[in-house]
Give the backbone structure.
Amino acid sequence: MFVDSHCHLDKLKDVPNGIQSVVKSAQEQKVEHMLCVATSVREYEDMYDKVKGFDNVSVSCGVHPLHQDDACDYETLLACVSRPEVVAVGETGLDYHYSADTKEVQKVSFVDHIKAANALDKPLIIHTRNAQQDTLNALKQHKAESTKGVLHCFTESLEMANEAMELGMYISISGIVSFKSAKELQDTVKQIPLEKLLIETDSPWLAPVPHRGKENKPEYVRDVAHFIAELKNISVQELAKVTTDNFYELFSLIKRDKNV
Ligand SMILES: [Zn+2]
Ligand SMILES: [Zn+2]
């Protein structure tokens, strides 16, 4: 029913019974699939080892814009994202909010990811914060629309969302939308067409209301879904159906289990 389009299962700390129990309770809460997103190529193997046993968890590979101390050259990136189990390229992107001083290396890394995505025809997972124009310019300049992708944990303006959607991008909304301080984002989400919308937790960070202060888990994607359904004045079932369909449309290398 639900999918968590973006989580970091390998980064969970509060898991006394292991990742297995987190995946199981997500399943019990009708979260049928989770995309576990890499934040560095160096750590990829460790992440993959932790989640490869689960049929309902897929993986991506890439270097997070804030992890440029782990940057790698294009060939290394391409080799890792070429692996058959890797369904998407990222997370990559530009974050000038937390790290404006690494702008130039972030840009080089982002362009490498776009090129790898184009070369392999795998979708991009993009993290963008306070870097609207540079993000859009890079996507346009390097023809990212031929591979498509998602702006994950979106918190930017409606104008940016509109421009990105014109380039074929999806917009993924995390639990931030449920925060009291997120009025502007809530207005933006109301305007984003359902056919371009994905939902995520970005777990273990950013637990949605009413779980704030706790470690975030994929099962809380339900709370994100409930909040957005209310904003958009539709049923949770409808929101779940559309965002799940969108997920499999974008991440088309993931085999959909029709039985769930
Ligand atoms: Zn991110
Ligand atoms: Zn992330």
